[in-house]
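re: that complex we talked abt at group meeting.

here r the seqs, copy pasted straight from the sheet so there may be weird spacing, ignore it
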Amino acid sequence: MADTAAHSPHPGAGHGPGDGATKRDFLKMVAGAGALVGAGAIAWPLIDSMNPSQDVLALSSVEVNLAPIPEGSGITVLWQGKPIFVRHRTAAEIKAAEDVKLGDLIEPQSDADRVKAGHAQWIVLIGICTHLGCIPLGNKPTDPRGEWGGWFCPCHGSQYDTSGRVRHGPAPLNLYLPPYAFENDTKIKIG
Amino acid sequence: MVGLHKSEFKNPVINWIDTRMPVFTMMQKEYGSFPTPRNFNYFWNFGALAMVNLVLMIATGVFLAMNYAPNSMLAFDSVERIMRDVNWGWLIRYAHMNGASMFFIVVYVHLFRGLYYGSYKAPRELLWMLGVVILLLMMATAFMGYVLPWGQMSYWGATVITNLFSAIPLVGKSIVTWLWGGFAVDNPTLNRFFSLHYLLPFVIVGVVFLHVVALHITGSNNPLGIEVKTPQDTIPFHPYYTIKDSVGICVFFIVLAALVFFAPNFFASPDNYIQANPLQTPAEIVPEWYFLPFYAILRSVPNKLGGVMMMFGSIAVLFVLPWLDTSPVRSARFRPIYRQLFWLLVISVFALGAVGAHRPQGIWVVIGRLATLYYFLHFLVILPVLGKLERPLPLPESISRPVLGGGKMPGGATAKPMEKA
Ligand code: HEM
Ligand code: FES
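got the structure back, here u go
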């Protein structure tokens, strides 16, 4: 039987004993590798089917009217299933955000890099704590805002400043910025 | 090995089947006459209890699934409908909900029994590791089950736990998106969790089968932790341990019934009776009680990746425990120092449980860190070293000696009379 030959100490007719690799070894390897690629090709559609589908991906955008948001507070809008914070900062909050030494930050980034030029009173953030995904409190002036006056995450106590930068762990990163643009002075389009 | 089996069963129908497929002979061998150490105490009930509990979960789960709707718009209301309108729906759901808590109580006792009596030591390493696999599968199943009613805790628990994977460098975010099937926990997440919550219990059944296969090769450990030497040391599983297990099963159902009928929401969070709201995190997110010690370890480390690694590490150490403990003596009865450190470990796990239920502030942070430290110290440092330093008490000559009281026993072993099995 073919099987017996494969297991005999000197397989592969035509090769001298002790030749090392035989033709059969080679075929086994090619067949094995082929089967592996095949299994992967079958598995991939199954695995990828769990990734976001086309309808979820379809990049929706939302427009936000800024006029009704009073100075000192923010609102939450939903974009792609994620909460987006839009906050109207007071002059004191802007100054606090701009005056921080970058060296004091966990993830150094200047306030100017986090707002649109000429619109420093508006900060727009993805309202998801970069620790484990809770929604930080702080849009309403009556909410706990933490020591740095921005946002406070109730889940494990992370604190963000008025620029949405993390100032106190366990969150490792600043709040993310969504893509957005000003349509005019009182309207933005997210997405 | 082709050929008909020579069955010894008298009943002609059973004999006919057994001749062609010797499952009756197998059951008789593995659960009837199976030689079992004669000195089991009641801690040896918990394996059988876990099996009964698994069957209970599958039975109640299948009937819940007949009325449950795995869609984010319908799920919460469908569970409320089960509670109010479906005949006996409240009973089935409460039995499933409290059954999950009972399952973890039973399995944790089972596990600590193994720690105390050294059941993880050679030759039972594989048996032990299969047990840890079952624990992991149970955790995954229970976590996904808790998401199904789509309450606030369901939603935010799912968010926090799936986000743990974002701590993985480079690919973390893609993995989380893949787990969610979107950019937040949403309907696709609920759908796949239902699918997997239905599937995993049957995977558990498969691993339990392997667990028992391994058990029946090595045989059971026992409170003395010494090997079975003569047939005198054993008694047949049936009727001796079937009857002893039955006592435990009765107690189990009494406790379950007490929970289901008198305190069905004892372990539940009121927040989970509020429908999921992706825009509002509840003031306090607390996982189910059986995850609290692990949650406390996660929060005790002020670094995201570090916390996640320690949390998974706390289970990973159990996998390698057979090689960490260097003492050849199994039962803590004969290990005077280990016996005390064992209780220190139990205390630190309970402390972690308490820490997990509180806000990470003030004294809770300190307790959490100390308990986490001890947990890892116990397994990674103390057990490897202790085996070399500790002077065990003399072991009894055999299991049957102290039980049957035959003959004089050597030295220290007389110190503690064994209870009769
Ligand atoms: C290892 C066994 C299992 C465990 C540990 C487990 C655990 C859980 C938990 C903790 C819940 C949430 C209960 C609540 O708060 O409402 C749940 C819900 C649910 N489970 Fe399971 N389960 C198991 C097996 C099954 C099986 C086999 C099925 C289906 C065939 C199933 C179907 C369901 C359904 C439909 C729900 C949602 C209804 C509800 O929330 O009560 N479960 N499960
Ligand atoms: S999720 Fe915000 S601190 Fe953990």
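couple things i noticed - Residues 36 and 42 of chain A are 10 Å apart (CA to CA). Chain A is about 25% helix and 20% strand.
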